[in-house]
Amino acid sequence: xxxxxxxxxxxxxxxxxxxxxxxxxxxxxxxxxxxxxxxxxxxxxxxxxxxxxxxxxxxxxxxxxxxxxxxxxxxxxxxxxxxxxxxxxxxxxxxxxxxxxxxxxxxxxxxxxxxxxxxxxxxxxxxxxxxxxxxxxxxxxxxxxxxxxxxxxxxxxxxxxxxxxxxxxxxxxxxxxxxxxxxxxxxxxxxxxxxxxxxxxxxxxxxxxxxxxxxxxxxxxxxxxxxxxxxxxxxxxxxxxxxxxxxxxxxxxxxxxxxxxxxxxxxxxxxxxxxxxxxxxx
Length: 282
Prior knowledge:
Helix content is 47%, strand content 22%. The radius of gyration is 27 Å and the shape is elongated. The protein has helices at 106-112, 128-143, 148-191, 198-204, 209-220, 224-242, 247-254, 259-270, 274-280; strands at residues 2-7, 23-31, 37-42, 49-56, 58-63, 66-71, 74-78, 84-89, 95-102, 121-123. It has 282 residues and is an alpha+beta fold. The strands form 2 sheets. The protein has a 6-stranded antiparallel sheet, with helices on one face. Strands 3-8-5-6 form a 4-stranded antiparallel sheet, with no helix packed on it. It is built from 9 helices and 10 strands. The model has no long low-confidence stretch (mean pLDDT 92).
């Protein structure tokens, strides 16, 4: 296991400091290779704040009595006196950075940077700049050069600013994805009985087909083609019950030129043939 840590005044004891706006108490990194596991359990937490950054691999954090798998690109925030229980495993090759900090304005500073105090786990993505800032803080704590405490506070503020930007970008991205998926859903609802090419639709919206399919599935829990199939079957079921159209006509209405192929799909989806479904009354 590789480890590199620095502590203010070379003290491993956590502390609270209300004399300054922001104080970095310690900073470090772990990278597991052969060590089977590295657990942490602090039932009463610490008296300072802590941010952990999963740079690679994953960690397992117990939040509100449940184990959460936290993957690379996520950060975890612990507030003072908050139970801390988490573990890393060597098989995951986990690399993690952490910083402990205190000060009279910590909550105000976190709010100013839109870092959620009521949310312990948040996604920031993986950035080389995060790695660099953590390493700089470790070096400053170890080298104890003139004005290093002031520089540590500035480095932590830069880290918080970069986290804030990532969170804001993530919200914008989530809104854009939601809008894209809702537009696609409206299009499929209108055009489900046409010959739809998912690849052509994605290209027409300047998206890659893989990106679109992945995000549509996350949004609806099914793929675009499964969504279209569900629409076709649902409308066929309605037509079988509410109209006197024959199977060939219904197949054409919902988008199938071959009524035999439609009948096979219908039975696979509902467990009954179209005629059996009509006779059973749905």
